[in-house]
Amino acid sequence: MKSIVSVRRCQDYRHEILRPQIEKLFTDSYENGICAKRGDSVLLKPNLLRPASPDKAIVTHPMFVEIVAEILSDCGARLSIGDSPPLGNLQRALARSGYEPFLKRLSIKSMPFLQKKTVEFGEDRIYKKIDLAQEVFDFDKVINLAKLKTHCQMTLTLAVKNLFGVVIGTDKASWHLRAGRMTDNFAHVLLQIYETVQPELSMIDGILSMQGNGPNSGEPRHVGIICASRDAVALDSVVSYLVGFPVDSVRTTVIGEELGLGVASSDRIAVVGDTTEGFPLVDFKAPKSMSMAWNLSYWNPIRRFMENHVITKPEIDSVVCQNCGICMRHCPPQAISEINGKMFINRKKCISCFCCHELCGSDAINIRQPYLGRLLSSFSK
Ligand code: SF4
Ligand code: SF4
Description:
Layout: E1 3-9, H1 15-29, E2 41-46, H2 62-74, E3 78-83, H3 90-96, H4 100-105, E4 109-112, E5 116-120, E6 129-133, E7 141-151, E8 155-157, H5 159-162, H6 171-179, H7 183-197, E9 201-211, E10 219-229, H8 232-242, H9 251-258, E11 269-273, H10 301-309, E12 313-316, H11 326-330, E13 336-339, E14 342-345, H12 355-359, E15 365-368, H13 371-379
Parallel strand pairs: 1-11, 2-3, 2-7, 3-4, 7-9
Antiparallel strand pairs: 1-10, 5-6, 7-8, 9-10, 12-15, 13-14
Helix pairs in contact: 1-2, 6-7, 7-9, 8-9
The protein binds iron/sulfur cluster (2 copies).
One iron/sulfur cluster (SF4) binds near residues 325, 327 and 362.
């Protein structure tokens, strides 16, 4: 049987035009259009990377989450909302990102992730244990509400990547460190989390998305789509295609299919909903990264060459930098240090995880691509 992915078009976040389209995502995904019954406890898991105004396209738009919550509330579900933003806390992220009014109106409980639960995996998985937020396991259902954004390390952050938020706070950095420069290893971490959480439904807010050097400081880009599926791997595969990226550039899709956690091949996916005329986009800007080189062995000469001449690296703009120290405290391999009041990156230690770029609130971290890398990128356009 094919995995169903629903794609609906919507030009903006006005309630009167968005609500009917989100209702269609539910009716496309379930025979009776209902994914929760009266009394079910349901956790909404948006992307709340950091407290940010919705027009910056960093967080899942509050109107998107509000309407999903209204629909589930109408079914009689008991709702909570949770995430573990890498910076700040959940309460601040909800307040600054415009969520508070509707949480109050619909009596939705905020659920910070605080307690850890160790999840064990079989011998066939790369990582044998992962600590996740205990709170996630206290619900009957999780609804995964992702934002369509580029991601310097993983190319795009979509439904599977959104669940990395159930890793509590600073544990996120330790997973970047364990996965190191190997993008595929990090994809395995994300997929093992997805396999454990098993969201009931994954939905993507792609009306105002982010292109370029996401997920924190890329450019907002109007795409005008919302999508949903019970198979997050298939959902991510379709959305990657729609924004014009090769499906295998988002490693969680191909590896997810290999592991049997979902499907990524177009012949195994049924896309339903509105017309996709005008897609795939031809001008959606990719992040300046060529992280696939990290999947080569450390001693591979091609990799050594690419590290020096092709691979993108973060670079601190000392004029813009506020010396807040956030990047230094959160850099997984401690590659950033302060010397004479200025921040420096030790290139040998840097694993190009781009956590610093993701967390800098001053947009002081640029993505630098060597000349040869830029040249190769221009050929691949
Ligand atoms: S997080 Fe940004 S502003 Fe803060 S020290 Fe690092 S580069 Fe500077
Ligand atoms: S300097 Fe930035 S990109 Fe490099 S390892 Fe540290 S956080 Fe990751």
